[in-house]
Specification:
Elements: E1 3-16, E2 19-32, E3 36-40, H1 47-54, E4 62-67, E5 70-71, H2 77-87, E6 88-91, H3 103-112, H4 118-131, H5 147-159, E7 165-169, H6 177-194, E8 197-202, H7 205-208, E9 213-218, E10 221-226, H8 228-341
Parallel strand pairs: 3-8, 3-9, 6-7, 7-8
Antiparallel strand pairs: 1-2, 1-4, 4-5, 9-10
Helix pairs in contact: 3-4, 3-5, 4-5, 5-6
Amino acid sequence: MDDVITVKDLYKIYRIGENRVRALDGVSFTVHRGEFCAIVGASGSGKSTLLNMMAGLEKPTKGEIIIGKDHIEKKSENQLVRFRRRNVGFIFQSFNLLPTLNALENVALPLTFQGMSKKRRLQKAEQMLKLVGLSTHMRHKPTQMSGGQQQRVGIARALVAGPKIIFADEPTGNLDSVTSAEVMGLIKKIIREHNQTLVMVTHDDHLASFADRIFRIRDGKIISITEPGKDAAAENADETIDENAGRMADETIDENAGRMADGTVDENAGRMADRSIDENAGRMADRSIDEIADAAMEEIASAGSDNSKEIRETESNVSDTEDGNDEGPKEDETANEKTDKK
């Protein structure tokens, strides 16, 4: 990015009697083209002095202020006046509108010093008032407008000459919080559209949050430079990382829990299956044993019945044999008797 403002080792020392007060004490920084920078500090911190130095309204005790290629600290008063007309616009806390002129005439005033015709001046002023949302208040004088409307006129006046740089000193200091936010949003929108550089001094951290970079000043020294947009993006990135990590952890936990649950189910199912198999096997074994025992008993019974039959048959045969034997000797005796008789 191009550096539009460069401040190097800047000092501003005031002599008050025998005392020396360092309003600025070795300040160095750069501002880029199209950038919105806020210089934030308490009353007496040196922020307004620094703004005046950059705008060429005060001379530094020591150091350099380079805008573009121009060394502001080396220019004469007349050279500074011409430089400001071409390159710088101002937005003031107290509006600084001429009470005898209406809004259109107040906005056209800076173009008068550029030698522009009245018709052309009024045309450009009208365009700027429409840009800041005051198309219906062009003929109103400052006393006929609210504070927010007067500051919009002041913004239009600062922008009408097409300056490269706009310096704003507490631009919403006399406005309520709601109007302040509206005005800051409008300023930021316009400078973005026109690629202009804005340097604003304020004590309000909320207003500073609209800026691309914030320079904090204390006792005439820059103590920190921050970038709210990048910091917020980093915070969002951290939150996103944490959120994604949390989701991944939850998913991992759920997945592991699912696996464990599946493993438990499988294990329980296996146990139940084994138990069922064992029970069925036991039942089958018991049934088989019972069946075998029954079969054996039947065989035994059958065998016993056959044996009994055989025994009965044997006994019957024996009985018959014995009966036959009894008759045999009788026949023999008869035969013997017959032999003896002969």
